[in-house]
Amino acid sequence: MTDKDNALFTTNRQPPNLRSSLADTLMAQIESGDLKPGQRLPTEQAIMVATGVSRTIVREALATLRAKGLITTHQGLGAFVSNDPNPRSFSIIPNDLQSIDEVLRVLELRIGVEYEAAGLAALRRTPEDIERMQDRLDALDTALEKGGYGAQEDYAFHRSILVATQNSYYSRLFDTFGDIMVPRQWARLDKMTSFERKRHAARMRREHHAIFAAIRDGNEAAARRAIRTHLSKSAARFEELRDATEPS
């Protein structure tokens, strides 16, 4: 490993969520051209020495890059930057959501996309769209009433909003991610008391019903406001959870 390689990696000495930090560092180096197409990456041992992280962290970071198509591995030879490392499609994979900070970044993306989609849906929804949204909302209500996470039902309801835009690119974007856009592994319902779970379910139902009512009534401004309020409150809850679980 050259001095230049060491310089690239030593900036990665950050404590929380090391796998994500290392993967982000490597991706930035590939995207900037510091690591060029076809270039062989340093060995796992060399990266460990340069960054101070464990072998497990290194392997998980490399697995993330492989999943994104940024690197390829060859038995006995090591890992290489892909000859065409620029991704042709954007995706979010489960390994991307290893911390609450990453969940918050996804919520920021969702706010941008769904804010516009909710407004368009209010203007363009058809009777069939309203019926579909009502069915998805009923399924979500049932899941929450039973004390479940309702992640799949939540995803299906939000996707029905995107379908109602009459712009297939919105729903196709969500289909790229699947229900990972509703990161239930961080909801921590199992840590809540019975009262807290009921309060959480009531809040979720209230926020989703407000979104549906605005779109059903054709109120563009209210639809945008309701979806932004819902996702912003979700982000605020995740921030509270992060602050409560971070070591003092």
Automatic annotation (TrEMBL):
What GO molecular function annotations does the UniProt record carry, in alphabetical order? DNA binding; DNA-binding transcription factor activity
Pinpoint the HTH gntR-type domain residues.
16-84
The cross-references to SMART domains, in alphabetical order and at most eight, read:
FCD, HTH_GNTR
**InterPro entries registered for this protein in UniProt:** GntR_C (IPR011711), TF_FadR/GntR_C (IPR008920), Tscrpt_reg_HTH_GntR (IPR000524), WH-like_DNA-bd_sf (IPR036388), WH_DNA-bd_sf (IPR036390)
Task: Supply the alphabetized keyword list.
Answer: DNA-binding, Plasmid, Transcription, Transcription regulation
Could you tell me which Pfam families the record lists for this protein?
FCD, GntR
Q: Which SUPFAM superfamilies match?
A: GntR ligand-binding domain-like, Winged helix' DNA-binding domain
Family matches, as PROSITE patterns? HTH_GNTR
Q: Which Gene3D superfamilies match?
A: GntR ligand-binding domain-like, Winged helix-like DNA-binding domain superfamily/Winged helix DNA-binding domain
Q: What is this protein called?
A: FadR family transcriptional regulator
Native organism taxonomy = Bacteria, Pseudomonadati, Pseudomonadota, Alphaproteobacteria, Hyphomicrobiales
